[in-house]
Amino acid sequence: MEEKKYIEFLKFCLSGKDMPECVKDIKWSELLVFAKKQTIQGVYARTVLAQDGKVRPEDFLGNKPSDDDVMEWVFESHILRKLNETVFSRADKASEWFLENGFPNCILKGQGNALMYPDPYLRAPGDIDIWLDGGREKILEFTTKYYNREPTNLHVDFPMFKEVTVEVHFRPSYMLNPFVDKKLRKYFDEVKDSQFGNLARTHDGKYKFFVPTNEFNAFYQLLHMYRHVQNSGIGLRQIIDYYYLLKKCKEEGMSEKDKKEFATRIKKFKMVNFTSAIMYIVHNVLGLEEDCLLFEPNEKEGEFLLSEVLLMGNFGKAETRKAALDTTKGHFKRFLIYEKYNLRVLSHYPSEIIWRPLRDLKLSWKTHHKDD
Question: Which pLDDT band, with edges at 50, 70 and 90, does 371 fall under?
Fold first, then answer.
């Protein structure tokens, strides 16, 4: 299976340990297709183009990328660098502008994660998610002065830039289980003050913005992936983000107290299966050192999640199991397709999935009345 070769080579790209024999058989243009599906072309590019100091031409075991292959990867790298220049610049401006207007803030995920990469300009960028202090009512009162957009329960779109989508968050995330979500709201309220004062800069010093603490990110980014794997899906980019976050936690000396609180929090929010799956993937599949882990890995859960990640691609863009939704009319039929799809994860994440039919019914009802 080609994907198995790509994952083995990805492990080398991340850890630099033992060039796998499979490199002899990799077709570099096909690897690029896989990398773009998972939005991790920059992770591979540093090794394919021998930019990371880990590989010499002879290390490719007779399968050195051709000049045409190199040009393809150089082109992708150039695109990523240009995109990141733009998104870093806009994140800097957004953070500064909201602070000047009385809203302490931090950048969630995205460019904050890019700062943890060996080359921040080679992480595939996305939107700008910015969490503001102040509460939903105050934030919406301010944002509607500029753009009148319909908010979700988490955020409101704020199109302050043409090139990059900005989502202004009232809170970072949510859970479908209303009892657990109530605890989650309380947790965010308890820790928010310590998330808005951590100024970070790009390695070249050109851009700066606020980011959450490592301790918060270790939980929050798991939660973000957990929510998406039940819905649109996650890709390897999100897991590699977490790989680098765990390395950062280790390098910057996450305390034993914080590690214990992390484990307690995972159990409190009923995320044990998902967390142990992520730990398995980053350690057993991608080669992260065991002493970087914050929770016990689980092979069964990890292999299940990895199969889902490879099927879904980045945020479900490669997902085909809900293809019938494109041609199915009628809210009830579409509802049944969604619930059949949700059954795949019911035994793994029951605390959340048992609440999904109610959420889907509400969404279907809103869509139906909107269409009316």
Answer: very low
Q: What is the CA radius of gyration of the chain?
A: 21
Instruction: Look up residue 191 and give its two tokens.
Output: 């820790």
Rounded CA-CA distance 218/264 in Å is 13
Which of 139, 150, 146 lies closest to 160 in space, CA to CA? Answer: 146
| Percent of all residues in the chain with a pLDDT value above 70, rounded to a whole number | 88
Helices 41-48, 28-37: inter-axial angle, 10-degree rounding: 150
| Mean residue pLDDT across the chain | 89
Nearest to 291 by CA among 231, 337, 338, 246: 246
Which pTM does this prediction carry? 0.91
Question: Whole-angstrom Cα distance, residue 332 to residue 92?
Answer: 45
CA–CA dist 189, 150 (Å, integer): 24
Using the Cα atoms of residue 262, residue 128, residue 174 and residue 290 in order, give the sign of their dihedral.
negative
Tell me the C-alpha distance between 87 and 161, whole Å. Answer: 10
Query: How many Cβ atoms from other residues are within 10 Å of residue 364's Cβ?
Result: 16
